[in-house]
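A reminder from the course coordinator: this example appears on the midterm review sheet, so study it carefully.

Given structure:
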């Protein structure tokens, strides 16, 4: 049971404020649900559907007030008494011997409906909840909220659905308007969390929230089988979800997790008292309904939306121009006085932080930068002609104040970020969609550069000189074209992406050797798969003994690829390996005459020698070689006893000719997909310079595979492997992103195949070092300051 906090405490007042905010918005939720039910009734539909919708409209007309009263009463009850009724059913205590019983279907349906609602709420409001959870836990001197604390979304979901049924409304009606309920309640909870956070900040409660104590990674065995049979909101809501980095922290697993919900308590952990339930919750924390990239985008858009709504309340014309810009993207005319002031400020900043006036850029300290930018801001506001311009100046200043105080940006690079403020201000004034969309190229450029440099330890070697020169060049190009707006940002963003590819491959001493090795691995794997595909095609209708066929596909294709890489397609060693394949096919065909058998015996020692040399060149150990040779001996024995099929002489000659010109027949490399289910094993590429990840993680969902393909080169991640966690930088993607190379600050290279990388993402063993993009974090910081004092927008 979650105890109710004392009303006199700040935590208790926060819960009361949260409750009041919810109560104020419930009327709108009820009205929106009624409106949607009427809209559905007016739509053409089958007779059965139309009757359900008619019954829903009639039931809502009778029961809407009762539903509203029930929700309000439920919230008041959990505020004063604690969430004693939020548990669907009590689990037996660990080690208990209670009789197992079937869970009623009604209880299962209740859990599915409320958990889906809770998931929808947390998909939208997870960041606000994370901040509020941290603040309330801090006030109460604990590390985590109670599993059934009223601030958790599943408690509200239970209250809403209990009140729905208490008002005489049924499950079929709920399903008809479920999408509307999810959207309206998610928006209401997000706003309620936000207002409660704002009030706590006014009370000086954790103005800057540190979420690191809540980042916990699974310590289950990598091969632990996943299961969802006994999941309940209390298990998933225990706070053991890891920060998603590119996506929001997820408190609930996906609704797909309830496919086996009918197992009830008997399927809770698979044994062991209850600890297993925790592992299931941790293992599935990333399997939310939306893909991680989609959640990341939704979070960023929600932050921008809150910023625009806040500014719109104080500067209505600003909100209108932003909405229009989303549709038409007009170029707003900047007032002449402000344009001149920006030019003056840009020159002053450039002179103040220019290397020509300093012995080194690193000597320009953050206080110096902030002081200079604050001085320029006051001058710009005096030159502004409209409230919109003054608000834009203030917001951009707050964004860069947050960026420049980011400790993870090395000082040598920070000065160049500071010089971007005036170009960004110029774009923000003339293109208001800078505040309306996360896709504006100026935002994307800052985020990409920040993601690449924020992983470096500023106290260590710091950023590579080549990377510093490129950041400097980009800023100077942007400054040189002040009148081109977004186009210059888009141009240099493309150039920066091309630079990164060249940089990690050729200029970064820590990564270029690893990238070279990874490219060799990819080339060999691609060639081996190409050889396999073509060998399968060549032997499709040829009666080759099955053991020989599998040896050619699984082993000899890799041998041919290795020889082709080292000696070229027409090299003598490569030709010798092709002749060995042809000899093997001939030797394994039926030998019905004494002369043929004698010829096989004469050739056999040389053939076996060639086979062993080929396997050794492909890095196969002696034991594996012996195993394959033994299998081939069985095939050759079958040929001697005439059990094998006979290959006609003309067909054998045709095969020989095809093997000689095999490279001309290979499929296009762009059509080859390197997959773990293919014939090859990457373990042969292990070396002291390159570590190939072959195991670990958990079965990835399609969303995780898609996320693995979208990881950005240059970004930093935290890799949990071998019992310790270390930062790694994504330095290279292979062809079609089938292989990915990460490099540690010490230069150790770690290679992932796409599916294995998705498995690590799924299990939370590799997570982004940044929990959100640099500009999104800066926007949240600006929003927090404006929540406290919005008058600064017009001052």
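Designed residues:
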């Amino acid at each position: 049971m979650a105890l109710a906090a004392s009303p006199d405490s700040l935590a208790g007042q926060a819960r009361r404020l949260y409750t009041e905010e919810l109560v104020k918005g419930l009327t709108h939720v009820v009205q929106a649900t009624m409106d949607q039910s009427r809209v559905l009734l007016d739509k053409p539909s089958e007779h059965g559907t139309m009757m359900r919708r008619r019954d829903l409209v009639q039931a809502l007309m009778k029961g809407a007030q009762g539903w509203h009263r029930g929700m309000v009463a439920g919230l008041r009850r959990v505020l004063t008494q604690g969430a004693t009724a939020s548990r669907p059913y009590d689990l037996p205590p660990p080690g208990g011997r209670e009789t197992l019983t079937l869970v009623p279907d009604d209880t299962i349906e209740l859990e599915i409906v409320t958990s889906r609602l809770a998931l929808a709420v947390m998909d939208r409001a997870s960041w606000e909840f994370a901040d509020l959870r941290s603040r309330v836990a801090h006030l109460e001197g604990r590390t985590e909220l109670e599993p059934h604390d009223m601030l958790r979304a599943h408690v509200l979901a239970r209250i809403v659905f209990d009140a729905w049924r208490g008002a005489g409304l049924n499950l079929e009606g709920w399903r008809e308007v479920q999408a509307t309920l999810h959207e309206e309640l998610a928006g209401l909870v997000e706003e309620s969390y936000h207002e409660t956070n704002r009030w706590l900040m006014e009370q000086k409660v954790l103005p800057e929230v540190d979420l690191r104590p809540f980042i916990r990674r699974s310590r289950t065995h990598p091969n632990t089988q996943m299961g969802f049979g006994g999941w309940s909101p209390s298990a998933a809501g225990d706070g053991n979800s890891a920060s998603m980095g590119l996506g929001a922290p997820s408190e609930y697993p996906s609704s797909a997790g309830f496919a086996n919900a009918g197992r009830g308590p008997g399927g809770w952990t698979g044994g062991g008292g209850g600890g297993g339930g925790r592992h299931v919750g941790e293992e599935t924390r990333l399997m939310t309904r939306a893909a991680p990239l989609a959640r990341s985008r939704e979070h960023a858009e929600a932050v921008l939306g809150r910023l625009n709504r806040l500014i719109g309340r104080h500067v209505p014309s600003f909100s209108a121009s932003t909405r229009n810009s989303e549709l038409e993207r007009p170029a707003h005319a900047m007032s002449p006085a402000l344009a001149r002031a920006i030019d003056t400020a840009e020159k002053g900043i450039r002179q103040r932080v220019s290397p020509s006036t300093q012995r080194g850029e690193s000597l320009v300290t953050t206080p110096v930068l902030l002081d200079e930018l604050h001085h320029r801001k006051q001058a710009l506001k005096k030159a502004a002609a409209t409230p919109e311009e003054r608000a834009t100046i203030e917001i951009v200043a707050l964004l860069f104040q947050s960026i420049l105080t980011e400790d993870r940006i090395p000082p040598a690079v920070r000065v160049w970020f500071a010089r971007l403020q005036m170009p960004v201000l110029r774009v923000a004034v003339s293109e208001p969609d800078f505040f309306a969309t996360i896709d504006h190229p100026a935002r994307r450029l800052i985020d990409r550069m920040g993601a690449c440099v924020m992983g470096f330890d500023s106290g260590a070697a710091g950023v590579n000189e080549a990377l510093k020169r490129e950041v400097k060049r980009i800023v100077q190009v942007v400054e040189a074209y002040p009148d081109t707006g977004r186009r210059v940002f888009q141009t240099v963003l493309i150039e920066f992406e091309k630079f990164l590819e060249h940089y990690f491959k050729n200029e970064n001493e820590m990564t270029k050797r690893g990238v070279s090795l990874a490219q060799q691995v990819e080339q060999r794997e691609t060639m081996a798969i190409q050889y396999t595909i073509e060998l399968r095609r060549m032997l499709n209708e040829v009666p080759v003994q099955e053991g020989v066929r599998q040896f050619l596909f699984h082993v000899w294709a890799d041998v041919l690829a290795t020889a082709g890489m080292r000696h070229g397609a027409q090299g003598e060693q490569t030709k010798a390996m092709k002749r060995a394949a042809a000899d093997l096919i001939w030797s394994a065909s039926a030998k019905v005459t004494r002369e043929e058998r004698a010829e096989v015996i004469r050739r056999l020692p040389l053939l076996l020698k060639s086979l062993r040399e080929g396997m050794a060149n492909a890095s196969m150990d002696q034991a594996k070689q012996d195993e394959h040779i033994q299998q081939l001996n069985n095939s050759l024995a079958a040929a001697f006893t005439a059990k094998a099929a006979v290959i006609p002489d003309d067909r054998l000659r045709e095969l020989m000719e095809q093997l000689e010109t095999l490279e001309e027949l290979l499929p296009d490399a762009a059509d080859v997909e390197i997959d773990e289910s293919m014939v090859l094993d990457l373990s042969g590429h292990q070396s002291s310079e390159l570590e190939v990840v072959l195991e670990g993680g958990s079965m990835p969902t399609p969303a995780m595979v898609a996320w693995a393909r979208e990881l950005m080169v240059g970004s930093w991640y935290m890799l949990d492997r071998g019992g310790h966690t270390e930062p790694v930088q994504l330095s290279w993607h292979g062809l079609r992103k089938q292989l990915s190379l990460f490099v540690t600050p010490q230069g150790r290279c770690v290679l992932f195949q796409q599916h294995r990388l998705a498995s690590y993402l799924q299990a939370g063993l590799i997570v982004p070092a940044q929990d959100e993009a640099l500009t999104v974090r800066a926007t949240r910081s600006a929003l927090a300051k404006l929540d406290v004092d919005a008058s600064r927008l017009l001052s």
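The chain has a mean pLDDT of 75. Residues 546 and 722 are 40 Å apart (CA to CA).
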